[in-house]
């Protein structure tokens, strides 16, 4: 059997980038041989194995043929006779279809190295059209490599357009769509992902809420956020806040919730997006809020107990309000002072029940009113 390194590891090393995970392809082996060598099979019918020590993926060379709709509608043909070239041919992009043997020799039958040099995302073969997920994958690679000057080959864009025009995209599971979207959000240029989907007519079907995004403006804000070493969650929240900025609060919230429900986004993504959309204006103009509004915001966001929320929201708020003059934060010192109030102390002073709650609130408001200079009194 022969073993080759393939996919992202070869591509990223040729680009001079760090390599995260490594994928391997095994030519001339049977599943039995792999199991005998101590590999663990991933799934019952799938010719992919995990290395007993490294846990890396070793896939038997295979060809694929479309047998139905959607991502699982594939027949695999893994057999010791399947050649490396045949296996590379079923891959999505030429830059992902370069193999490297144990001596460091490259096998590159589809011109992947040349396309790397020319910064070109180009499909390997017409079989590209057999898997709609590839529309999303190419959009994600366009986002990931945007800063390196990569663009999508016109003939590949054409296939992506054809795929998107049919009903193929509707057969993708929410998990698959979310996985690609989430990875795109973690790149340097998440907006490129949306632009590509829009350009091939896939955005309406997959991410309708983001179709109307002013991408020039969004790019500027997204880059400003990325410059503060943002997470995918923060980029997601920012994108949705921008996309819904011209809608009323109720419609905006509904639209964010609908998208998250449809894509089955993890709750932490949804919650941050909703918090940002609801509170970014108040956070941006915190100094000029009344003490009552300041306290309401602090309570709604539970900031006394969840300081990490503010740390997550702040860079997003700054990216949404780029013209904002960054002054020394008033919110953090305020939270510090509010935290010094303890119900126990009030109880020791004789407060209890409803009166305790009222007294606590009164003192909280006094602190808010006192800290922000020029603030109105609580009952103004
Ligand atoms: P990453 O750095 O994000 O891991 P990658 O290129 O390694 O990028 P993987 O999802 O790990 O992407 O897949 C490994 C390889 O398998 C790809 O480089 C590509 O050759 C092939 N591949 C994965 N998914 C598909 C797909 N849906 N269609 C065609 N080829 C695919
Ligand atoms: Mg990989």
TrEMBL record:
Entry keyword set: ATP-binding, Magnesium, Metal-binding, Nucleotide-binding, Nucleotidyltransferase, RNA repair, RNA-binding, Transferase, tRNA processing
Keyword match Nucleus: no
EC numbers: 2.7.7.72
Binding site for CTP: 8, 11, 91, 137, 140
UniProt KW Amino-acid biosynthesis keyword: no
Residues bound to Mg(2+): 21, 23
Top-rank taxon, per record: Bacteria
Reaction catalyzed: a tRNA with a 3' CCA end + 2 CTP + ATP = a tRNA with a 3' CCACCA end + 3 diphosphate; a tRNA precursor + 2 CTP + ATP = a tRNA with a 3' CCA end + 3 diphosphate
Entry-linked Gene3D superfamilies: Beta Polymerase, domain 2, cca-adding enzyme, domain 2
Cofactor(s) recorded in Swiss-Prot or TrEMBL: Mg(2+)
UniProt xrefs under Pfam families: PolyA_pol, PolyA_pol_RNAbd
InterPro entries linked: CCA_bact, NT_sf, PolA_pol_head_dom, PolyA_RNA-bd, tRNA_CCA-adding_enzyme
Poly A polymerase head domain boundaries: 3-122
Domain named tRNA nucleotidyltransferase/poly(A) polymerase RNA and SrmB- binding: residues: 149-210
Positions that bind ATP: 8, 11, 91, 137, 140
Sequence similarity: Belongs to the tRNA nucleotidyltransferase/poly(A) polymerase family. Bacterial CCA-adding enzyme type 2 subfamily.
Misc: A single active site specifically recognizes both ATP and CTP and is responsible for their addition.
Functional description taken from the UniProt entry: Catalyzes the addition and repair of the essential 3'-terminal CCA sequence in tRNAs without using a nucleic acid template. Adds these three nucleotides in the order of C, C, and A to the tRNA nucleotide-73, using CTP and ATP as substrates and producing inorganic pyrophosphate. tRNA 3'-terminal CCA addition is required both for tRNA processing and repair. Also involved in tRNA surveillance by mediating tandem CCA addition to generate a CCACCA at the 3' terminus of unstable tRNAs. While stable tRNAs receive only 3'-terminal CCA, unstable tRNAs are marked with CCACCA and rapidly degraded.
Protein name from the UniProt record: CCA-adding enzyme
Taxonomic path: Bacteria, Pseudomonadati, Pseudomonadota, Gammaproteobacteria, Oceanospirillales
